[in-house]
Predict the structure.
Amino acid sequence: MLKPNLELCPGPKGGINCLTCGSAVPFIYYASDSLSFLPEPSRQVIRTLLNWTKKSIPNELKSLFLKSSYPEATGSLTYFRLQYLLGLLNMANLVIAPSRFLREKFLEAGIDEEKIIHSDYGFNQLSFENFSPKSSDQLRFGFIGTIAEHKGVHLLIEAFNKLYNEQAELRIYGSPEVDPKYFSRIEKLVKSPRIRFLGGFDNKDVAKILSEIDVIIVPSIWWENSPLTIHEAFMAKIPVITSNIGGMAELVQDGVNGYLFKVGESEDLGDKIKSIIDKPERITEFKNGITPVKSIEENAAELEAIYKSIYLRE
């Protein structure tokens, strides 16, 4: 949830924030033509959702919006859409939020409190069963994920550019094809020879990649829900440095299993990285603070119990 100027969006607030932002409703109508930066499967999902949203809006409101630029037209559409989606959510027997943060956001939006619970994801941990980190004389910091502006890779590069230590390096894994313009921009930001772009990866190779990383960095500038990268790092007993908001701050305890830095502030991120470079023994301390990640088997058992309880109530 980001505004067009990349500021954090606190949520719709009944449609008022969408109206003042001025981008939400036009997005419903025109975004399907401007999704080229996304992989085709993602574009297909978004097109489907957009088409469904269009169909759910009454014709008289569509006409009002398309023929007018009046704020009340946009406000009416936004309010209707939010109320319609909220009604659908409240029709469910139960909604599961993978993070407490997301649950709070749904409650703020108006979902009935008894309808939504928090239960984080479970993970297939087979590839981590015989996980063995590879030693190195380098201190290896890593980013794994989507290279796009909302993921904050530019902040990470800005922070690392200011660190002058030949024993530390930054490895960036992610496809340059997701957002070529952004990738070109961050390539030009690089000043340190210790920053390496290592390209895209197959998800089945994540454990292998993590075996050659000492600290994972998740510098997202938007809220995030319950980031898979953080869970994967913890399955490998790798500490994480991440932004101090949303689901990220829920998973990483500052000074226990990693560090939190002020979202959007490359200087603070740089300070956190430098503190580990100056005292690498903190990595071992953070490893000891990492708790087990829920397995997919545990998650399946939880879901089965939830379905049974719902069935018995009906």
Observations:
- Residues 1-91 form one domain.
- The beta strands are 95-97, 116-118, 139-144, 168-173, 195-197, 215-218, 240-243, 258-261.
